[in-house]
Amino acid sequence: MERAHDGTDSRRAGAVEVLLLLGFAAAWAARFVVPGVRATDGAWPVPLDDVYIHFDFARAIADGHPGAWIAGQGYSSGETAPLYALVLGVGQFFGFRDHLAAPFAAGVAALAFVSTLRSIGALVAPAPRWALALFGALFVGVGWLGWVWWSGMEVALFGALVARGVLATQRARDGVLPPGARRGALAARAGLWLAACVLVRPEAAVIAPFFAVVAGRGAKDRSGLALAARVVTPPALVTVGVALVNRAFTGSFMSAGAELKLVTQNPYLTDVGRAREVVSALLHLEWKLAAELGALGGVLAALAAAAVIAPRRRGVAVACLGAAAAYALLTSVNGAARFQNFRYYAPAAVLVLVACSIGAGALARVRGVGPVAALLVLAGAASGYRASAPEAAHFARSAGEIEHMQVEMGRWLYFNTTEADVLLVGDAGAIPYVSTRRAVDALGLGGYHGVPFARAAPHGEAAMLELVERLPAERRPTTLVLFPGWFPETTSRFGAKERLALTVADPVMVGGPRKVAYAADFGPLKGAAGRPAAIAGGPALGPLVFELDVADVVSEAESNYVHPAPFGGFTRVEVREGTFDGGRVVPEGRSESFDLRAPAAGWLVARVGDGGELRVDGAPLATTAPEPGRYRYGWARVAGGDRRVTVVAARGGYVSYHYWLFASD
Q1: Strand 654-664 and strand 619-620: pairing?
Q2: pTM of the predicted model, to two decimals?
Q3: Closest by alpha carbon to 45, among 114, 125, 101?
């Protein structure tokens, strides 16, 4: 057959292959979407509120505000998949927004599935064309992966990109004569695909070195280190670039998600506690998969072994498995990893399935063994598919909860608030997306004019409220839309009136059984107006020269404040004398310290809770007597000059709220 004819036949075969794979994707999607549509009463099912976070960022891109959670609120580092938001943003620009955003995301997932399998097919070539059915069956057989793939999250795009990266790595290893620039260009292409993976999941930075080693070992007459550098440099540059952008716009190299969720950022965990959280997340994942995969788990293990043994693709197979392990380990540092149906681990599962597909392709090429292996793979996949029925039911139930609580609340707010209103939300997804209102995310995943809510969130409600107090009155929330169980102090003290309450019985995905919209009353957040003008029985106070607002993470950072975590430093919300102040618990025998900037001698005044004897740099602190409904104040004379001040709970614990330095009157 002539080359032109071969090309025509190849294109025709490729088109047929794409159509068949799209049918495969539609059947896989229907497994989850059809029961989901029933649960949502006809709406496209979205089982995670976080999907709507992507939609929020995508809408901002489409409206000309890239990097913003909500247009006009400034840059946010809460979007850890900016490339996925860009893809969705293109769809929103062309009209796939509002109720069409989720079907568009499903279309992206379907195309990603086709791309992933075609990349795997090219990777294992030459192999029988029917082997593609085996690879597809492996993906479909893992019900948990299907849950995440069709959820609207970014894992489908990640799968397509990482499969291209693996293919490019293998081609760089194989090389094309003449060598020289061609092999280097192939390695650079692999690096670009892996860099795109980092823009979809930041944890993907750890997988690049595994594939860099594979490319380097195929260097032959070129420098292995040079080829490896071409693979690993683009992902490294993207990682550093994102960190620098975050630093420039937020003051922190870390993303908002990392500041909020990493166990390393939890101030109340010991190192042992952090290690326990990581191990616990991995064990929970293992128990989940062992229970769900059943016979398919054994098939996957056998295929992974075959991939490692088979000589032609052994390098990339080992790289996929090693990268999956590293990815899963890094993911386990995320304190939320074992929630939301373990969706953070799905990219590692994709890498494992690519390796298993390599093993399946190797067996398919062995005469006499291929058909038998194919039957075993299909039997295992069928077993996994049958066992995935609970995942489909869980998908539907989760989507129903999101629709009937989060989306419904957003619709109500759209019709019952104005564009001048500002929402305080604890979930940064569906409620602001559907309501189209400005919003403050109490957990910080959504940005709000550069205020570091993500940094405050691990410290509790008091730290969050201290930042709300910093906001100008016109930017403060007018409506609280919160789970009372998550924010008991905020809702009970500052929720003036319930406007709407939605409930879900025995929730599996939303954060609580009851979501309430309240009219907000932040009158007690007085800021500077809540400062004491005089202290009964205390010294005369001159002009203010220094202030430390305890539990305000911005003020604490300015004074290098150190609280007694992990066995103290817990934050407290307090309203006395009609004035709010957040504080921290200092247990007996523990201390807090800060840098005091004293341009001249004056009086250091402390606002503290009832009980406890305090010592400032070893000297007793004189205090007012406790009175119901009033703060207790202490004072001490300090000399001029900058110094480190340590306050100790000498007898009994206390709550520390505020420190001021007033010049002598």
Answers
A1: unpaired
A2: 0.93
A3: 101
pLDDT, tens digit, 9 for 90 and up, residues 528-562: 889 998 888 888 889 999 999 999 999 999 999 99
Beta strands in 459-564 (DSSP E): 479-482, 495-503, 514-520, 541-549
Residue 467 identity (one-letter amino acid): L
Give 491: exposed, middle or buried? Use CB within 10 Å, 0-12, 13-18, 19+: buried
- Write the burial class of residue 77 (CB in 10 Å: 0-12 exposed, 13-18 middle, 19+ buried): buried
Distance of alpha carbon 201 from its chain centroid, rounded?
9
Q: What is the mean pLDDT of residues 561-574?
A: 95
The SS3 call for residue 280 is helix
Residue 342 DSSP one-character state: G
- End-to-end, the C-alpha distance of the chain in Å comes to 101
Residue 4 has pLDDT above 60, yes or no: no
| Residue whose pair of structure tokens reads 């400034």 in the numeric block | 74
The two structure tokens encoding residue 146: 């299907």
CB atoms under 10 Å from CB of 174, counted, come to: 12
- What DSSP line would sit under 557-605, residue for residue? HHTT-B---SSS--EEEEEETTEEEEEEEE-TT-EEEEEE--SS-EEEE
Higher-confidence residue: 280 or 371? Answer: 280
The tokens for 312 are 């032609």
Say which amino acid occupies 483: F
Give the phi and the psi of residue 222 in degrees, each rounded to 5: -110, 170
Q: Give the CA distances from residue 492 to residues 346, 461, 527, in Å, rounded to whole numbers and listed in that order.
A: 38, 12, 20
Nearest to 55 by CA among 432, 389, 408, 448: 432
Q: Say if residues 450 and 250 touch (Cβ distance below 8 Å).
A: yes
Cβ-defined contacts of 526-535 (< 8 Å, 24+): 526/469, 526/578, 526/579, 526/580, 527/469, 527/470, 530/579, 530/580, 530/581, 531/660, 532/605, 532/607, 532/633, 532/660, 535/605, 535/624, 535/633, 535/635
Check if the beta carbon of residue 653 is closer than 8 Å to that of residue 616. no
Residue 662's region, left for phi above 0, alpha for psi from -120 to 50, else beta, is beta
Instruction: Summarize pLDDT for 468-508 with one digit per residue, the tens.
Output: 999 998 999 999 999 999 999 999 999 999 999 999 999 99
Q: Give per-residue pLDDT as tens, 294-332.
A: 889 999 999 999 999 988 889 999 999 999 999 999 999
Tell me 625's DSSP state.
Answer: P
